[in-house]
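Sample intake sheet
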Amino acid sequence: MITNLEVSRTLAKAKLILVVDASRPPSDSFKLPPALLALITTDIAALEAGDSSAHAAEGGRAGASASVRAAFEKIESAVRAGYAGIAALIGDSILPTGISAADRLATFTIYGWEKGELGRFTDERLLVLAELALQGETSITNAAWRYSPTLIALISSQLDLIEDEEPDATGGERQVSVSGRRTGLELLQTHLSRARYHYCASSDDLDSTKELAKISFQPRRPKGSANTPTTPSITPKPGAP
């Protein structure tokens, strides 16, 4: 049975891939082919539409579980606090926390705040914002621009709670009957795998390229280094601290 959390994580990864690809110049060997980008963009819209229909068929996803409802409220508070933290960063400063207007907008975008705006909070969007918050730990270079470790820990724990409680809150096997949602998820996952293959084929490092971490795929680590954490990052813009 697919879960809302699995859908949100796939959507978050797909949107992150689009953000990273948009920052790459045309000459970048890792830039995705336009046809594949178009497929991923179409898949995102189709899956979001199918996901919305599935929730309507389920008769209200989180209403049956008070603990799931509380988890969503905590996630909303956490991502709002993360947004406020980025908004409060000092602009164009020599301090470690300094950030230009362009880098602030780019950071907001990576975290899912399109055009740097809060937008409307639905449960589906909160799941995507939560997943992008976790992915920000590897996709944002300057640690001072990331959400605080306390917020990340809170978001992670609430996602775990939702994953544990969600089958009961949504009526369990009713999700299986919504075939369009499953088909949309599987198609997007297939095209994301193609994006990963493109990255591997674009470097002599193959599946060890650290560029994979920028799109939330784990690069293969050298033999004997399983316990050594990787610290991938996006390429900072000229003039960024």
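Comment: The mean pLDDT is 81. The longest helix spans residues 34-58.
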